[in-house]
Amino acid sequence: MALLERTSRHPALTCVVVGDDAVGKTSMLLSYATRRYPTTHVPSLFDNYAVTQLLLVVVVVVAKAVLVAKVVAVAIEAVVVVVVVVVVVVVVVVVVAIVVAVAIVVAVAIVVVVVVVVVVVVVVVIVVIVVAIVVVVVVVIVVVVAVVLVVVVAVTIEAEEAVVVLVGGGEAMRWWWCQH
């Protein structure tokens, strides 16, 4: 900290640069300070070339550490983004699979209901047709029996009248009935 305070008063070191290019600019400032000013105007720490180089190495190492930290942070962000994307994709796939499964179940249920309704309608139609046929057959049988009975009764009445006419009277008719 004392070094920073002492060097910050020097005109060549009043500008402090922070950023991705801090290493290069800091080394330029230190080189400029050692070349431009005689030893008497530069703080005594810069008199020794080895110390200057050591400071440059420290600055470079710190800057590299910052860059590595930035790279690690970006890598962590990338991993987090990838994990989030994978989780979102998995959730979407699961939701789509559930929706498709429900749709299939609903479709099958609808098909089953439609088939049951069709079968019931067909059975009802068949029963109605059979009942209609039975009713028609019964009506036809009743009509035929009625017609036959009417014909038989008519024929019988005609025959009785003919017998009465032929025999000619009450005594003869009683005789005919007794004979038959």
TrEMBL record:
Coiled coil: none annotated. Keywords: Cell cycle, Cell division, Membrane, Transmembrane, Transmembrane helix. SUPFAM superfamilies: P-loop containing nucleoside triphosphate hydrolases. GO terms for biological process: cell division. GO terms for molecular function: GTP binding; GTPase activity. The chain crosses the membrane at residues 49-67, 74-98, 104-127, 134-157. It comes from the Eukaryota. Pfam families: Ras. This is Cell division control protein 42 homolog. The lineage of its organism: Eukaryota, Metazoa, Spiralia, Lophotrochozoa, Mollusca.
